Amino acid sequence: MSSLEATRAELGLLVLYLNQAEARDKICRAIQYGSKFLSNGQPGTAQNVDKSTSLARKVFRLLKFVNDLHGLISPVPQETPLPLVFLGKSKNALLSTFLFLDQIVWLGRSGIYKDKEHAELIGQISLYCWMGSSVCSTLVEIGELGRLSASMKKLVKELKNSDKYQNEQYRAKLQKSNERSLALVKAALDIVVAVGLLQLAPKKVTPRVTGAFGFITSLISCYQLLPSGPKAKTT
Description:
Layout: H1 2-18, H2 21-39, H3 45-60, H4 65-73, H5 82-109, H6 116-159, H7 168-198, H8 207-224, H9 229-233
Helix pairs in contact: 2-3, 2-8, 4-5, 5-6, 6-7, 7-8
């Protein structure tokens, strides 16, 4: 019975995870960039999977620009330094613009919007917006990690000779630092993915490199969306 309940709990976590539209989108993203890595830009089954999955993902992102638009107009904590506020709002604005323009790209590729040249131009602009948002995210995470590091050092001094790992506040800050470090890696790698999609350095950032980096950031996104045990138990 205990093993059955454990299986039910694990399946419950999986259901909770897959119920998230964002999680399904990131799984499809992993398939998309994995296929790009395998195809290396050459015609074939892998490239067909890459293109079809890319188009399918755009449906998941319909009206998603509203999320970052809401973040753009939402207040930030008063203690946040002005440069980080500016970078954070710039990230929201750029990402919201990318997601909005991406809907026009979807209309073009699905045949609803007939001006293909205009749709492709909008697609290029949207990718530049995404690259800009990734740059802003990278800088925000660096700044926030610096603030966290200073806060943790100050807390260690206050704790003096006591075990810092037994302190709940220190453990919370450490967990937050780990989460932001992972977000920093993801944002930095996404810049390379954007460079590859825009073909700004085609000799260095090949379709295979783009696919590899995109696959890694997709796995990171999937990990970040994992539900925690306590949350799963309460649902």
